[in-house]
Amino acid sequence: MRRLPHFFSPLLFMLLLSGCEQLQSPPGRGAVALEFTFPQQEPSPDSTRNSLTSVATATFNRVHCTVTRNSEIVFDEDLTHVGGTFQATIELEVGSGYAVTAEAYIDSELCYTGTSSVFSITGGQTTTTSVSMVSQYPAAPSNLAATLVGATLIDLSWTDNSENEAGFIVERKINGFDWQQMDTTARNMVSFQDTSLTPGSNHYYRVSAFNGAGSSPVSNQASVFYETLPEAPTNLIAVSISSSQINLSWQDNSSDEDGFIIECKSG
């Protein structure tokens, strides 16, 4: 089982859109170097969450960058992944009104977005600007329902409200004990079966979505009281006492019965 990140170490990398330290551009052109900063701490949106086990701390593996000038798009591409950083080469016309928006993905899940301040490009120079990235937690699942199926399992179902989850965390608590993580599911899953039941106990459940940025708030809580069937009595003996009375005796093999049902037939 992999561990859910409760914080990320400060992550700072330089995106050199010029592709070189000394810009060699024709007159009227310049370049921009971006500093992307990611959150240092990633508390769960649910402040009551226990320390859980789930997905490992992940590193984004795709960054999409859009450069606009006065709201007109002048650059809109995935950045090249080179040696652990993302790099691309671009020359921009001298002028003002530039801004950058960025999206960072872990696999196919959008985990961070950011926007720079408006900046200007000076001819023959590289302009540096900062893009502060914000975590994009998945939306919380809803409509969690728990149903006892037969005598051996509880079936869970919920509504998936997010498009950027890596999966779901299923948690359970028995009676009044602490929440414990049972398992994680794949993305887009909307059901889970619990087969490790405790007789004579209330089983409470909640579900949250997660991605590389962290976990969503939890769903509503659903519960089922699980009670097993009592053991059948044995050694039933019928003794005729008189023409109007028969005494019955048996061995009680259960400790959780509410009583016994006595049936008879004649003929």
Q: Could you walk me through the main structural features you see in this protein, from its secondary elements to its overall organization?
A:
With 267 residues, the chain is an all-beta fold. Helix content is 0%, strand content 54%. It contains no helices and 23 strands. The protein has strands at residues 2-3, 11-16, 29-38, 53-54, 62-69, 72-78, 80-82, 85-87, 92-93, 95-106, 109-116, 119-121, 126-135, 142-149, 153-159, 167-174, 180-186, 191-194, 201-211, 214-215, 222-226, 234-242, 245-251. The strands form six sheets. Strands 2, 3, 5, 6, 9, 10, 11, 12 and 13 form a nine-stranded mixed β-sheet that branches. Strands 16, 17, 19, 20 and 21 form a five-stranded antiparallel β-sheet that branches. It has a three-stranded antiparallel β-sheet with strand order 14-15-18, with no helix packed on it. Strand 7 and strand 8 form a beta hairpin. It starts with a strand and ends in a 16-residue tail after the last strand. Mean pLDDT is 79; it is low at 1-23 and 41-58.
